[in-house]
Automatic annotation (TrEMBL):
Protein name, as recorded: D-Ala-D-Ala carboxypeptidase family metallohydrolase
Keywords of the record: Carboxypeptidase, Hydrolase, Protease
Domain of life: Bacteria
Coiled coil: none
Residue span(s) of domain Peptidase M15A C-terminal: 82-159
Single annotated GO MF: carboxypeptidase activity
Keyword Lipid metabolism: no
Pfam families, sorted: Peptidase_M15_3
InterPro entries: Peptidase_M15A_C, Zn_M74/Hedgehog-like
Protein species of origin: Acinetobacter gerneri
């Protein structure tokens, strides 16, 4: 009987450790909510109270298409700096006809992770409503408004070191050159180690939003 109890206990420990490891693996996607300010949390809670049903439907759709889907918060969030008057538009759900657009872009990010270009990332912005785009004076044809675009920051250990950033950028550029045309991939490389990926058109750009500033175009 004692031996049986020991076996049961050991099996329980194994299950617990397995669950912990799976939880850690899940965290490799955009789940770093520790970066969210208290003010943003309160804004989100207030917004979610009015949009819970549609948000749940949107998340279920994305998670059914993506192996390691970002948390619901990041699917509706704009984290870029903005004037206070624009904060009321920080969270928004895209029209249903645009839901599939984000799936395509997230699948590109999945490919990059599977190839080891990076592991952990934090989404900074996805869908941007027309009201938000007008308020922040975004590009009139911004791919964020059609739910194609993902702005994100890599949060692997030491990812902010210039050496690792340069290596990651080189790998992203190589991926873009080889697979970008078929994927219709847009790649933006911004200051502060922020990247933009969409699947609306094959192109690249850098800090001044022009192709000649992209590291991918430099010899």
């Amino acid at each position: 009987m004692k031996i049986h109890n020991k076996i049961v206990c050991l099996f329980a420990v194994f299950l617990t450790l397995t669950a912990c490891n799976k939880s850690q693996d899940k965290k490799t996607a955009a789940s770093d909510t520790g970066q969210i300010s208290e003010n943003e949390r309160l804004q989100y809670q207030k917004w979610r109270e009015k949009n819970a049903v549609q948000l749940d439907e949107y998340y279920q759709y994305i998670s059914s298409k993506i192996k390691d889907a970002p948390e619901p918060y990041y699917l509706v969030y704009t984290g870029h700096s903005m004037p206070k008057k624009c904060e009321e538009f920080r969270y928004a759900i895209p029209p249903k006809e645009d839901w599939s657009h984000l799936v395509k872009s997230l699948k590109v990010i999945e490919q990059l992770r599977e190839q080891g270009v990076f592991k952990q990332y934090r989404i900074i912005s996805t869908y941007r409503s027309p009201e938000m785009n007008t308020c922040v004076r975004g590009a009139k044809k911004s791919k964020h408004m059609a739910n194609f675009a993902v702005d994100f920051k890599i949060i692997d250990q030491d990812a902010d070191l210039d050496k690792n950033h340069q290596k990651t950028t080189q790998q992203l550029c190589e991926f873009w050159r080889k697979k970008g045309p078929k994927l219709n991939m847009g790649l933006g490389i911004y200051p502060r180690h922020i990247y933009h990926i969409d699947t609306a058109a094959f192109r690249t750009w850098g800090g001044n939003y022009k192709s000649d500033s992209s590291p991918c175009m430099q010899k």
